[in-house]
Amino acid sequence: xxxxxxxxxxxxxxxIVGEPYVLHRPDDLLVYEQDAIMVNRxxxxxxxxxxxxxxxxAVVRLAREAGLPVVPRGAGTGxxxxxxxxxGGVVVALTRMTRVLELDPEGRTAVVEPGLVNAExxxxxxxxxxxxxxxxxxxxxxxxxxNVANNSGGPHCLAYGVTGNHxxxxxxxxxxxxxxxxxxxxxxxxxxxxAGVLTGSxxxxxxxxxxxxxxxxxxxxxxTLLAIYxxxxxxxAATSAIIATGIVPEALEIIDGVTMRAVNRTLHAxxxxxxxxxxxxxxxxxxxxxxxxxxxxxALCRAGGARRVQTAASAEERQNLWKGxxxxxxxxxxxxxxxxMLDVCAPRSRLVEAMxxxxxxxxxxDVRISNFFHAGDGNLHPNLLFDFxxxxxxxxxxxxxxxxxxxxxxxxxxxxxGEHGVGIEKREYLPWLFSADDLAAMRRVKxxxxxxxxxxxxxxxxTGRPVHGAPAPAGGDTA
Length: 479
Ligand SMILES: Cc1cc2nc3c(=O)[nH]c(=O)nc-3n(C[C@H](O)[C@H](O)[C@H](O)COP(=O)(O)OP(=O)(O)OC[C@H]3O[C@@H](n4cnc5c(N)ncnc54)[C@H](O)[C@@H]3O)c2cc1C
Description:
Layout: H1 6-17, E1 22-23, H2 26-30, E2 46-48, H3 53-66, E3 70-73, E4 90-93, E5 100-104, E6 109-112, H4 118-125, E7 130-131, H5 144-149, H6 157-160, E8 167-173, E9 179-183, H7 194-198, E10 207-214, E11 216-217, E12 221-229, H8 232-245, E13 251-256, H9 257-267, E14 277-285, H10 290-303, E15 308-311, H11 315-326, H12 328-331, E16 338-341, E17 344-345, H13 351-365, E18 368-373, E19 379-380, E20 382-386, H14 395-411, H15 436-449
Parallel strand pairs: 2-4, 3-4
Antiparallel strand pairs: 1-2, 5-6, 6-10, 7-11, 8-9, 8-10, 12-14, 12-15, 13-14, 13-18, 16-20, 17-19, 18-20
The site of flavin-adenine dinucleotide (FAD) has 37 residues, from strand 3, helix 5 and strand 10.
């Protein structure tokens, strides 16, 4: 921390947000030292929990005056280290701001505060037969502010689009402490799409304090099937075949055998014990149309070598399948003490090659990998499992495997992050995709919003520091 009179700073923060909402004792700060990435951590100097944009703005002005960085934070479920206060400073946790401020069920729009938990919002909307489409696997915990800041996806974003497709406008606190609206509450906004710029900016351009969203009406009918395969190749080829027909299911996920067995051990989800991959497919629509689409998908699954195709016969069976998918990450705890959930993309026509590269990286670096992912989007999530600490020299093998996988995806025409953001985790790899000129252009956007680098400094842009603090793995190719 720069030379700051800490007790005085704490008193001034308390006068803004109230004494109980300023955390400064070491035990309280511990909760905020990391997000779900698990392998990076850094304590903040102080955490504030404001209630409203004016309080956020006053905190930003004070931190700026004190020369301290400000790191916005939702639920801390991010998987790229975006909410980690790497340089200390002030963490602004938005989790007290959970109100639905406006709701227009007929017009299908709402204005919500950023700390509202995604799943709680959708549960609340059920009485109007509406829902908020972005459904990250973390939706029972992650906040809508965090979803917007990371432009999050989710299983059903295949058909509905990622968070940015559902954001109409934002209220943001800018780096100089002013409060501004970007976008609108209506269906279109004139001028530059600044809400689009702020969406996915990972807390580096502004702190989101209100979000105007569009809502969707629940479809009449929904059908879910699980197609079971002997090999990952076959499941990937079936996915590519479904996509090639032009059918867009609402969700098209792959879960591998390692994951299914782990989920069975924790949730008794009833996944097959002896299969190497399964496709979880969901189709929604009007009652008369859904069975025909489902039949075509089932035929494609069987033609692709599915050993068995089981359709959920009841809402309970459907929920059980999704529970298994959405709790997959937590279930990995039965396999290893630590995991890195990598987020990469490959063209959907090249899934077989991409997943072979994932398996090859695991073999080459002797790292166990489990997979469950948004196959229909070509968005892979290899989970690298390990039992040592990230400070152990062996961790270089894990980094080596992640780098091989990312390189393979780039080579195939994909990219190094699909939805989890760049944060700390991917920033050193951006030059694999962007030229120095590209990065300088992005830097000018950051500078236009935050010339002094107050907001979430060092995120997204390469720093030249080792990834996760690990030494560079020996023996990797250069990108
Ligand atoms: C089990 C599991 C499953 C997941 N599944 C998915 C998935 O399917 N799809 C997906 O996209 N992600 C997924 N994630 C990643 C993560 O949950 C999402 O990125 C989520 O949107 C983060 O929300 P959060 O509230 O936890 O944000 P945080 O982790 O607290 O913050 C994330 C980033 O947003 C910034 N931020 C947070 N709030 C604000 C705000 N109000 N204003 C400005 N910046 C802000 C932070 O600075 C940080 O950079 C998963 C994570 C886990 C642990």
